[in-house]
Design a protein that fits this description.
alpha+beta, Methane Monooxygenase Hydroxylase, Chain G, domain 1, four-stranded mixed beta sheet, 7 helices
Length: 232
């Protein structure tokens, strides 16, 4: 009778310990999710403030007769903002692998719309400032559906490191439910991933860095350093 009593007590203790571990794990998971959400929301607010600042800078320089100095500062700020947006997007997508909540998905949509805003602003600024820079659109989806998308992303990161502020890269997840992405896919007839669009030229499937580098170098009026090195 005593042994049976001890046996029941041991199982009860084990059950309580298991419940405690489960609850602690759940609380830690919720805390991490909240911390991640706080991060992406804070980053989103920073991006919105940066975009509003760039819009004001654009309106200001568009009103100036001598735009050279203002255009240089604007182009630098635009490049830095797009870079920060891309870094935040990558972190957000890593978070989404663990927690595909409505809040995270809404935040991702805000990031996508911010990319469109920056892209349109970059086109407007190019006309006003006559800047010798190019925008590249990268259409991708997750690695399971598109094993080559990750490789294409690394290649574009490499090209961005070569061209610096001479090249702006904008990335769009074609599987995400956003009408603006659908609109661009229809405009450029994007039917596969990865796909890359540079100056209205569409490249479907995985593109090598050599091929993209060769095409980019045909677009610049004043050849940037990576193109001059290519000629040597």
């Amino acid at each position: 009778m005593v042994d049976r009593h001890i046996y029941v007590r041991r199982h009860l203790v084990a059950f309580l310990l298991t419940c405690a571990v489960f609850v602690i794990g759940l609380l830690i998971g919720l805390q991490l999710t909240q911390m991640r959400l706080d991060f992406v929301q804070e980053s989103g607010r920073e991006q919105r403030a940066s975009f509003e600042s760039l819009q004001l800078q654009y309106l200001y320089l568009d009103s100036q007769k001598d735009k050279n100095e203002s255009c240089f500062a604007f182009s630098t700020a635009l490049d830095q903002s797009v870079q920060r947006l891309e870094e935040s997007r990558l972190k957000l997508e890593n978070y989404l692998e663990d927690a595909r909540t409505d809040e995270f998905l809404l935040t991702k949509r805000e990031y996508i719309l911010s990319e469109f805003q920056y892209w349109i602003l970059a086109q407007q600024a190019k006309d006003v400032c006559q800047t010798d820079s190019e925008s590249l659109l990268f259409f991708y989806t997750d690695d399971d559906a598109c094993p080559e998308c990750g490789t294409q992303g690394y290649i574009l990161t490499y090209l961005k490191s070569l061209f610096q502020d001479k090249l702006l890269v904008f990335s769009f997840d074609v599987e995400f439910d956003e009408p603006m992405i659908d609109l661009l896919q229809q405009q450029y007839n994007i039917t596969t991933t990865p796909s890359v669009v540079v100056s209205d030229a569409v490249f479907s499937g995985l593109q090598t860095r050599e091929m993209l580098l060769s095409h980019l170098c045909t677009l610049y009026e004043h050849q940037p350093e990576p193109c001059r090195e290519k000629e040597i």
